[in-house]
Amino acid sequence: MIVIGGGPGGYTAALYAARAGLDVIVLEKLSAGGQMALTELIDNYPGFPDGIDGFTLGENMQRQAERFGVKTELAEVLSVQLDGKIKEIMTSDGVYYGKTVVYSTGANPRELGIASEKEYVGRGVNYCAACDGMFYKGKTVVVVGGGNSAAADALLLSKIAKKVIIVHRRDNLRATKVYHEPLMNAENVEFRWNNTVSELLHDNKISGVRIKDVVSGKESVIECDGVFISIGRIPVTGIVKGQLELTPDGYILSDESTKTNIPGVFAVGDVRTKVLRQIVTAVADGAVAAHYAEEYLANVQAD
Amino acid sequence: MAAVNINNQQFQNLIKEDKPVLVDYWAPWCGYCRRIGPAYEKVAEQYGEDIVVAKVNIDEEPMLAQQERIEVIPTLVLYHHGKAIGSIVAPESKARIDAFISESLGK
Questions:
Q1: Residue ranges for chain B with pLDDT beneath 70
Q2: Going by C-beta distance under 8 Å and a sequence separation of 6 or more, which residues neighbour residue A235?
Q3: ipTM of the prediction greater than 0.85, yes or no
Q4: Residues 32-91, chain A: which have Cβ within 8 Å of B?
């Protein structure tokens, strides 16, 4: 089995498959953990009553899988050939062949794409209110975006922060109605409609944002302690396009079985269509994928 | 060979040598620095024969970081014959670090 992407879903699939007797290799481009590796404190993964930092949790999952013989290669996958009984995975460090593939590359938060954004992650730039909101108790934060996740983030932050300012490029929320009323009624939530963030202001951490009115072109500055960027996610599916069926948003079309349109190829975690993208749901996918991978291999061998 | 933490004095001596020196400017509080850690150790293992693979903790060596104009971390700088021949900020993969090293040395 070849697992592409060493996040929680990938390493759980690897752990279960290795314990079931399969040879498993995990291809990871940087380090274990995926998105959660950048989360300072994870409080919604059960079993850690005092929370755990995402990087350590990722390394632990890697070590646990490796205890049962899983191998990890730090290689970047460049292209894949998923058809046929033997799947070919072309990487920066050579070609790998596998009978089954677990695709667990995850999703990245959509970035604003402006200067200083990447460098100030963890120093005022955030992509997950549920993860990092607690650091802003009694402080002022800006939420960028107007969809469901931005509205949910703003609502959550309004209960923690002193003040929440929503910056949205349109003149109303795209979010479902359930969010509208509580946000409009919250005393510490303000809106800056028709505005986009043009610059992140900082010394050694974020100190404010410069915003630009898309109608008048007028610029203004908001002082704040942090920015939550909530403008959607991009699943990492570029290299499977044309082979695996994707939704218009780029997610791999699948369900709780994690099966894809190609037999022997499974989609696990944030990269597939699903209701809730969390560590717990990703690890659940991993176990299910290993189960169906075993079943698939048994059937292939019986043929 | 593991990546070695060096101080300003060691840095000044090392970059004068014939062997290129790769430096990862990092700090303990930097989340992304931690993320590139395993890939950087792998780089140290693979390139150790030809390149000195080192790390500078900018909290311990603020003067050096300032002198080398390190404004964001993690920044990787490759030095050869006493001067910087290339740098990369927050590489997204080990493959990107590999490419950076070969591009810089190929110049």
A1: 107
A2: A105, A106, A107, A249, A250, A251, A252, A270, A271
A3: yes
A4: 32-33, 37-38, 40, 55, 74-76
